[in-house]
Amino acid sequence: MLTPIDEIISKAIDAASDDLRKLSLLIHGHPELALKEEKACAALTKYLKESGYAVEHGAGGLDTAFVATHGEGGLTIGFCSEYDALPGIGHACGHNLIAIAGVAMFLATVEVAKQCRLPAVVKLFGTPAEESVGGKVAMLKEGVFDGCDLLMMLHPTAGYSGMWHSQCSLSMQIEYFGKAAHAALDPWDGVNAGSAATIALNTLGVLREQLKPSWRMHGIITSGGQAANIIPDYSCIEYTIRTQWERELEVLRARVLNAFESAALATGCTHNVTEELAYLDNQDNSVLGKMYEEIMQKEYGGEPVRGVGASSDFGNLSHRFISLHGMYELAGNHVPNHTKEFTRDAATVKAHERTLFAAKAMACIAARCMVDKDFWERVRKDFDQRKAV
Fold first, then answer.
1. In what residue span(s) does the Peptidase M20 dimerisation domain sit (predicted)?
2. Count of domains forming the chain
């Protein structure tokens, strides 16, 4: 008697649940920032190797990135795990859960390929530094994802969605260099780098009146001086801009850079801008997204989340590969991401259970792509049509 595919998936993930819970709590209890996820990376790769999978370390030149691989022939399906934390509030975006969701989807899809004797290459990509730097973008540039037919990942949030459009995002660091002087005895001999930072942010505040409603700008002064009686010779701003579409990002970028330059000119400072890798908007696949939402709606009811969300480096992958970025409700109480309450809930049993259910849904979709040629053709057609727009 043949075993139904969804039963294979459910059993594979349930069998790993206790181990995945331990991994999740370990990562949650030791939050690590971008490119410093040594404990998380070590724990995940140790588990994968002990489970019998080949693991490549340092993927794309990033010390805390990895790729686990199984199988050959057929479609190449990849899943992404994230595991970096946020400064000060730890795993307030649930990356401890995203880490184990990737592992769960990988294990289940491998098991389907084994038991159904399907030709397929299944990969798990350990992708660091999503909250800053853009690990996936760096890995993409180095060809780590080349050859994949389908890329998938899960993300906890305050609702569920299979067609979630993220914003493009570009983060930058702006440094102003002036000249120190005594603020009381001879301030006229100084060049105030702190004033340059203030003028820059005030200029950007005025600029907001001319921005599209969907555009976002936000930042902080991370260094503005050392003492009130010293004209500061150095200041630094961390700033991020976001737009709904890729074509708009360069327009906003040019206007923002003009504001930073004008502040340097007004104060007599010099300045330097260091830009991180840009995050592109997520390109939805309506065929994959519809199937995911139907599964989630049947389980939880309600309506899927729509509209524009935050930003993710997974968006860059969606421009190159057929993909699905599934969102699911963290713990049933609609707590927003990047809050202390989200950090708390990301360690709960309910969040763990919801993560594994969503992983089962995603693995079922991956399996259908492997076995249903007509479905896969519809997925490919949707992707091609979106690229042509």
1. 169-264
2. 2
